[in-house]
Amino acid sequence: MKKLDEIMELMADEMADFKSSLERLENLSNKLQKTSVPLSTEVLENHLNSFLKIQQQKENIRTGNLELIHLKLERAYILPKSLARLLLSVLLVLLISLSYLTYKVIESQNMNQKLYRQLSKEVPIHKGDNTLE
User: Fold this and answer.
1) What is the pLDDT of residues 11-57, one digit of tens each?
2) Do the beta carbons of residue 125 and residue 132 sit within 8 Å?
């Protein structure tokens, strides 16, 4: 009998808990029915429009930065100016050296021709003697 009383007592506690849970559920259901959900999407549209404006501003800034980079790349030199000056200086020295050496070679050829003419006038050539040929 004691066990039966304990079971009955537990069932009564469970029923009381169940009844209190039902009352809470009814209260929540009433609150939910009383609250109205607005069907307007104005708030969402405002948030979306502000987000789109911010994104457009960021896109404009990125586009401006890319245009600046593009302009800088177009104006950039492949070789630094100092390296170009050095290269031109070396080429100028080579050109002057080549011109000077060409002048000296031509001058020495003219001198050789002049000496040959002088020697040919001073030394008679014998037809039987082939030593100068």
Assistant:
1) 888 899 999 999 999 999 999 888 877 677 888 899 999 999 999 99
2) yes
Question: What is the CB neighbour count within 10 angstroms for residue 55?
Answer: 10
Instruction: Write out the two tokens for 40.
Output: 């307007």
State the Cα–Cα distance between residues 98 and 92, nearest whole angstrom.
10
Place of tokens 């021709």: 113
What CA dihedral angle connects 30, 32, 34 and 36, to 10 degrees? -170
Place of tokens 């039987």: 128
Helices and strands (DSSP H and E) totals, the chain: 3, 0
pLDDT mean across residues, the chain = 88
Q: How many CB atoms lie within 10 A of CB 27?
A: 10
Give the span between the Cα atoms of 44 and 51, in whole angstroms. Answer: 11
DSSP designation for 126 = P
